Backbone:
């Protein structure tokens, strides 16, 4: 139970209405129950202020006048809501201590207050900092290090020689430090794998979703800077470098040697893969399902995906697309004929 | 060993040929061995009736006359084959009981006839119904519930507060209830994760493939209705709602807050991701690798992917595509010139 | 420590410079440290020969003259580097033996020199050949077989009746032998799963990345021939057949019943999915994010993805794309008018 006064205090806001009112949960404007705190962060949902069953709402000054229920006025309602919702997050944590079924190599350094769950394996020369949580079945390879308060969820596999910073979260079934996909052909035409001896270096406050794959560098390292956020099923090839505060949405993937600047946002299923290394400037946003094959040097929004349409229209247009160059040539021919006519006309006019 | 009489009985069909013939396995028309039952469900393979080594075939009335081997005539040979093939499915099951290495919280309710394998972890307040199978290394988070006869394959991670219905199958390495990808920016430009406190609710008879990721709701719940079938590597963002009997093929993905109606079919690698919530009507089929960014309100078939072609043609056409708007403007200019000529002609004609 | 003489011997090369010089590590041209061996395999990086801190470099005859540091001259520097880099690969191996927490069915045949880690499960009638490595938490289903010296990384799930050849590597969280996605509709409109009773057969020297999913055959088998290399997050549907020496890059996926010839290269996120089975000839290369819906019968390079551009240009052109067929009709109308004019001109000329 939190009073509105307390909520205002924690979110640097002020209460409009009775400060002593208490909330016991959180909910969306549409589905909140009595006792819930909700928030209005998008004017699209503004009309719902009048129908919500929530007991109180976080909002900005802009919407106070029209709000029929008690409110806490803040500068960023979404951020304030995030702060308060944490109190109602029912996620379980592994208890502090080391589960007896965990297998910790004697050479590993284990910090204070760690939470190490059943069947966890920590290999030789690892460094597990204070407050780290390793959930059930997590495997940490030799010489790897995990920073303070980082939480690694169930069944995550961290290969050897991987560094992860502080306060990161890694979701279930993610693999970090996988051998990069380096293949060459020998004189008999047989594909040979090139040993991948680089590392993975991950900064602080990084989020990795579930079933993410991050390859280790071929020779140099794969690097993910501070505060990067990767959604589920993202793939990072070997020797990629991701600038700080960069976001990749679900199923996006980078081939090897891609560099992303700071504050990039890659939409869902975006792919970056060129003939050689590809470099994308900071502040670039890329629309869902776009393929990027060449450098982007200027910040801004970029896209490449086609728009859906009904199947008949689509089929007709796509067949045309495969003759587009010919179509343009036909257009040019038409233009030339007309140019000639015009110049003839002009000539004949001037001849008169 | 099954007699054709028995097969006909179980599939509501009738035998053409000797009812006492027995089959000892199943096979495709092309590769069946003597003793196998096969089926003809697609007229494309009809000629193979004459070359198959199968001992008997499930088919419809339509193909009886031309069939040189004993047959069982049914209304839906594929469905009938599915029914019989079950008998020859060699998949192992975890034995009934709880493996001594499984870790079951004392507050969890465990039904009768459950099959709980090695190293399984079931957390506080879980409800595991009768006949549930939890294979090796499965983790079930606190307050989650799994319905009767549902089978969860190896290394699946179910987070807290997830409800799964009866008779579902969840394949290996899938994660359910992962934190949704909710990110906001604070006043310092740092990305902050918004706590994801909604649940995941999954109906009865749902199939989830391997390496599927299903995010929990941000505040409200992510909902998957009865009889939904998701292929491997599908991704479901937070607060999605999938209508009953809907299919998503391999690698398809939904961003947050996507609603799919009933009986939709999304092809492989389809993506649905808009600026805001996207809603797709029931009965919509979407072609492979299509991106959907806006609502689809009418049932029907939709596509958006481009067609492949040889690299030279492709490069030429794609460069043209990026000047298509200019091309249309050139066309319009040409049309205007011609219109003017025509009206001049008309004028000069009428002037005569 | 390796002398250049030794390196030259192992790579069938010859030393230019002091044969007694020793190297103690490997590095890229750009980031090598003193003591490292590097390689020049791409003329793009040629200028770095003059700035590298490496102690020696693998290169071809072509670059010897300009190289200021000791070198080993070989025919394929990348391949030679791969050979030597293996010595500096710090990856840990599970020790020889069977971990006491591993669960091996008494009917399984276990070869000599196997390395079986913690919590591994090997089911009935499996055959684990000499020198196989099964890392922590690996599950192997009944009747499956794994060939000599194959290494299966952490948390991989191998279903029943899967055959894997010799010297393969399977990375973390991959699932092999998952039920194919075979769905049919019964008379009530309910989706029914068709039992998947085929197997998965994988040849020798195959590489599977992390979070790969390989479905078992519906009736016949899914087959992956020798020396195939699959990157992370690749998906293989039921009854696919992959020819020897074929490569699929990250996130590429095949629907059911796709056949790839030998020496194909599928770029990242390529999808192959047709109405029926799709067959792709040997020697076909497909550009990233291309969708292939029909057979490709000739070797060569194919693509289909659109190119990215800035958002405004993109939106304008994509809207035009959805009216392309109409545009072509307008062009044809223009052409007809001009043809008529020309033939009129000709007529009137000839009439004169």
Residues:
């Amino acid at each position: 139970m939190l009073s509105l006064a307390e909520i205002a205090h924690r979110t640097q806001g002020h209460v409009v209405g009775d400060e002593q009112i208490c909330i016991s949960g959180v909910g969306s404007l549409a589905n909140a129950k009595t006792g819930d705190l909700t928030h209005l962060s998008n004017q699209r949902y503004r009309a719902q202020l009048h129908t919500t069953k929530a007991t109180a709402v976080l909002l900005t000054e802009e919407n106070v006048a029209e709000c029929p229920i008690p409110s806490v006025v803040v500068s960023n309602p979404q951020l304030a809501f995030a702060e308060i919702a944490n109190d109602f997050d029912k996620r379980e944590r592994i208890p502090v201590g080391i589960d007896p079924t965990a297998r910790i190599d004697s050479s590993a350094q284990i910090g204070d207050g760690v939470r190490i769950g059943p069947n966890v394996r920590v290999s030789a020369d690892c460094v597990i900092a204070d407050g780290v949580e390793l959930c059930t079945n997590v495997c940490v390879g030799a010489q790897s290090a995990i920073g303070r308060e980082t939480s690694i969820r169930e069944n995550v596999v961290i290969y050897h020689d991987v560094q992860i910073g502080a306060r990161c979260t890694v979701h279930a079934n993610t693999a970090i430090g996988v051998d990069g996909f380096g293949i060459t052909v020998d004189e008999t035409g047989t594909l040979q794998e090139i040993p991948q001896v680089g590392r993975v270096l991950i900064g602080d406050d990084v989020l990795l979703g579930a079933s993410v794959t991050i390859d280790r560098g071929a020779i140099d390292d794969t690097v993910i800077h501070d505060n990067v956020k990767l959604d589920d099923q993202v793939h990072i090839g070997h020797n990629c470098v991701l600038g700080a505060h960069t976001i990749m949405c679900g199923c996006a993937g980078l081939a090897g040697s891609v560099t992303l600047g700071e504050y990039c946002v890659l939409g869902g299923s975006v792919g970056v893969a060129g003939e050689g290394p590809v470099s994308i400037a900071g502040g670039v946003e890329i629309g869902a399902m776009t393929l990027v094959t060449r450098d982007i040097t200027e910040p801004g929004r970029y896209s490449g995906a086609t728009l859906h349409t009904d199947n008949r229209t689509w089929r007709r247009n796509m067949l045309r697309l495969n003759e587009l160059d010919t179509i343009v040539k036909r257009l040019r021919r038409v233009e030339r004929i007309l140019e000639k006519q015009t110049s003839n006309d002009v000539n004949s006019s001037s001849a008169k």
